[in-house]
User: Fold these one by one.
Assistant:
Number 1:
Amino acid sequence: MTSIRLLSAASTIAVLSIATAAPAMAQTKFEFWYGLSGDLSERVQDMCRGFNESQTDYEIVCVSQENYDNTLQNTIAAYRANKQPTVTQIFDAGTLDLMLSGAYMPIRELMSSNGYEIDWDNYLSGIASYFSTSTGEMLSLPFNNSTAVIYYNTDALAKVGFEGTPSTWEEVETVARAMKDAGYECPIAFDPAGAWQWFEQFEAIHNQPIATKGNGFGGLDAEMVVSQGKFVDQLTWIKKMYDEGIIVHKSKDAGETANDAFVNGKCQITSSSIADHGTFGKQAAEGVHWTNAMLPMWSDTERTNSLVGGASLWTLKGKSEEEYKGAAAFFNYLAQPEQAQTWSTITGYVPVTMAGFEAMKANGFYNEAPNKGRELAVESLTFTPPTENSRGIRLGNYASIRAEMVKTIQDVLFNNAPVLESLQAFDAKGNEILRRFEQTYKGAQLP
Amino acid sequence: MERRAFYRNPVLPWLLIGPQLILVLVFFYWPTSQALYWAFTLEQPWGGGNTWVWLDNFIAIFRDREYWATVARSAFYAICTTGLSMAVALFLACFVDRSLKGTKLFQSVYVWPYAIAAPAAGVAFRFIFAPQSGLIGSINTLWPGIWDPSTNGIHALAMVIICHAWLGIGYNFIFFLAALQMIPRSITEAGAMDGARPLRRMFDLQLPLITPTVFFLLIMNLISSFTDSFGLIDTMTEGGPVGSTEVMVYKIYFDGFKGLDYSGAAAQSIVLMFLVIALTFVQFKWVEKRVHYN
């Protein structure tokens, strides 16, 4: 009795496995891991479905790893166990480790060896430079990219009688003070964890170096120089505004994030990624009207382009010829203008190519709400050709350095630590991290 | 007369302990040896290679003032959570043991917190303690600024300690209650007839009789507070503000997984491992001498 049952179970499994294996024989399957979740993950899945339906040779399997950190950690673990996906999405701060690892296949080589012609010069300069070698060769495909902007509540601006949007920090201060006097409890929402928009972007648009050697593009022996630049004054200003209650601390720990406080109308000004433009549009409470602008400058300075944020797609080594063909076909699919446009339209990320941007502009995409204002991100990214300081940040273990900056800002704000000394300590700590990284990759050359 | 059971078959015992041995080797000794190797090298995260650096990693962490601050914080954390959790659990167990009204109900109710996973509890407590919107945060409307774990490091540390202690109460409670119920009724009754009040009976009779349990729980709690605090801290404070809730195990996670400094993190885990071993050793060597098992 038992043996018959076992036999039937075994044969069922055998039949099933043949049945499921059969259609896959014709196609090459390959995996793509990404770090987006929720609504954005659904959009990626749509895109994968679109690719699978557009052709019959390859089947892409798209797996969400929830967030960027997980994707990086899991990809590393998988790579070390030789179980890596063919394509993976790696965020800005994880770029350098991967570049030095030699674990990837340069995108240019992949595309040309598989017979695809891509116009690499068409990519927005600020975006391309972040994911390129120091000589300008692109290593990965820019995918979901953004930059920081500042968001204003227009009703609050109108109440204090300001026409348009403030474009300098001086104006921001005047407006915010007026808001405080007009009875708004939280003029500016501020989260120290937002070092990306409050610190890195500030340095880029004011053309200030974060580290020597062009923020590390020139070699692994770069040294931190934050305490020698304009950010000292900026942090002093932030501290002053915080003490006067004009900048208000909003964070997950405090019970309400800066973004939530803004869409609920509790805070009137916030700075965040352009990718939040769509979210704000959906989440803004009844009667909350808002707009966005490029990040403010100090009035005596010249604006340079802002830094790109977000992630790019990397092809990993150790896969078969067929899988690479599939990956190349997928990248080619993504690079089609209509795909690029759909992706940017539905997510709020910026179009990564000039052609995509022009096409969207020509369609009138940016002319009306809810998309009006998103074009400012592209304007900010391409404001000037990238300089040494606004090209990107190529520093080892940058996630740790960023975390040190968050601590430094918190220390200044909450514990009244002196600004200059704190930033000097930050530089010293950053240098320690950089030297350790340099030692780990002893003798390695930046590509 | 020798009375020992032994197997004639030399293979069978090995087969019997085999599964357990394999489990221990695969899930403990293998990762530990890997970590030990990494601690003496500089390991590239993507596995491109490594260089042998002898004790450099250890020297680097021992030179780091922040690391020592983390060690001191972990010790403080361990002592506070253990003390708090055990004291409350013992207090509750003594009451439940006295078979007052509703004892049966409380016997099961007090264990519940232990069934909650630390990250889930962390999320719940984050909302409860949130300074600008939470339940506890509402005291800020009475006295503005009196409670703010998002900016005040001391508040943040206190918050995490309370939550960790709360989570452990159920576990400790069950052990204390079981131990208290093992004490023969006649002893407590004899004490009562001699005129000893409940408090006196607790200190002079019950506590000395349950020292083995106290000792066991002390070790379990201390080890757990060194190693299990991660889930709570990651969901509640992520080590902040200004690193004031960064304990050893959280720093290991951050340096290793977020900072991709595998070797530094490996060296720190080795230090933590030896610390826990040493702690247990010390307790068995000295504290246990004061424990009477019979």
Note: The first helix of chain A runs from residue 2 to 26.
Number 2:
Amino acid sequence: MIEVDVRLRAGAFSLDVAFANGAGVTALFGQSGSGKSLTLSIIAGLIKPDEGYVRLDGDALVDVERNVFVPVSRRRVGLVFQDSNLFPHLSVKQNLLYGRWFAPRGERRIEFDAVVETLGIAKLVSRSPTGLSGGERQRVAIGRALLSCPRLLLLDEPLAALDIPRKLEILPLIERIRDEFDVPIVYVSHAVEEAARLASSVVVMDGGRVKFVGDPADAFNRLANSPATNRFDRSSVLTASIDEVSALYGLTKLRHPSGTIWIEGSAGRPGGVARVIVNATDVVLSLLPPQEISARSVLWGKVANIQFEGPIATIEIELTDDGPLLATITRGALEDLSLKEGSQVYALFKTAALDERSIGVANA
Amino acid sequence: MHDFLSAALVELSPAEWTAIWLSLRIATVATLASLPFGIVTAYALARCQFPGKTLVNGIVHLPLVLPPVVTGFVLLMLLGRKGVFGPSLAQIGIVFSFRWTGAAVACAVMGFPLMVRAMRLSFEAIDRRMELASETLGANRLWTFLLVNLPLAVPGIIVGAILAFAKALGEFGATITFVSNIPGETQTISAAIYSYTQVPGGDESAMRLTIVSIFIALFALTASEIVQWRAMKRLGRGQ
């Protein structure tokens, strides 16, 4: 359980953040300059707030009113930066064991072999960190933080410096860490896909303030509705149960209360829950049940809201038991279909348009 | 060249050998003894905020800008037999004046600014996030210093030590002012060369010592290059 309620003034910028989350991943989401990294620095103990407290399982890490400030080295909070900051004078193995050596003997519950196995870095152990690729370095950095047996893991945009294939390699590893090692994680990101995929709770920040705290799907649907969001960044998060995995085509069928979604690959076992992020620009609307068309994912819903932006209209479609789905179409198409609030429509999107980053297995 | 060198070495008189060994001993002791102080001072100047930092920085650099004779005279006033601290040090058995240990003190003081400058740059070049990483992994400031800052600063520490050693070998003004020019006790190569040039027929001895000091300098520089290259390679910065 992490509880944060802090205020800090730094020049013209003022930070006022409060949120709490239990197990799993808390995503601190916001644009650069929103104060998310500053919040992380306060949790880690790199910066002292002017007022407020940070508590971990009820123990104060910092509490200005009660004059408590636990120094960084005694917080037992693992921090992974954007650039991995491995110690160049130590081997990968020595890097990994660095924090473990300082962890109290009775609390070294995370085992070296398990971490090395999970992160797939067994072959790197005897090497020097200077020869590693960006993705490898970041895996070692995550392993190093994890092996210090922290009470909380802080990940500060750990994937930001990596290219997309590398991100796709590491995201599932962070998911596995979340599920296997039982360490609460605070994950700072400005990437919707990462936060939605990993988090059990999302804290949306803007200008040093918390705009929203709650379920990732709600957070992103709310964000997507904001007029400030560029239409290419608008997306919806859908939650669906895994129905069957088709090994023949390498596809997975998801059952959504409003229809069916097909995704690439195998997202998990049947019965599990998957999250899918759909870009508003990838959605096609139809008044008739689609036939003889290649788009496989079809959801049935009701137009709840229409917003115009020049020749472009963003349509919010209300689904059964889930957040709304956004579709961006042209004004011409809107009028041809005579769509208005209350119209029933079929929303279609291409399986091939969903890249791996947009599909995640939600933690139950 | 080789024959010339061996001829020069064969012909070295016992007095010249004494000056050479004394120089090496004084320079080595001066460097090793000032090394811990140099490292701590350099780290403090690079990383710590404390009152009087500018003053400390100024005092450390003073021997670099003062005439060496002035530094020698200040040492005489502080540590000499009739100096401020001299008598009380003498009571506990520490005497510097007219001893080779005094020459080592003079050399250490003169080499200190060079040593600290090189090490300070090396400490400042360390990415702060490396230290933060260490602290978040549970290491306090002292452990972080020992396990991260110190090893990462090794190339700079070596450079600082070599500079101090070279300065100590060549030191003349402060040493001769503080502990005079006593053969076998405080007469280093530099002082010996100076003495030989002052007596008739001393040119040959001066020449031989000059050649020897050139070779010591070349040897020390080469050794430092090799050690530094290996340290850099270990840190992954070498070619």
Note: The domain at 2-214 of chain A is CATH 3.40.50.300 (Rossmann fold).
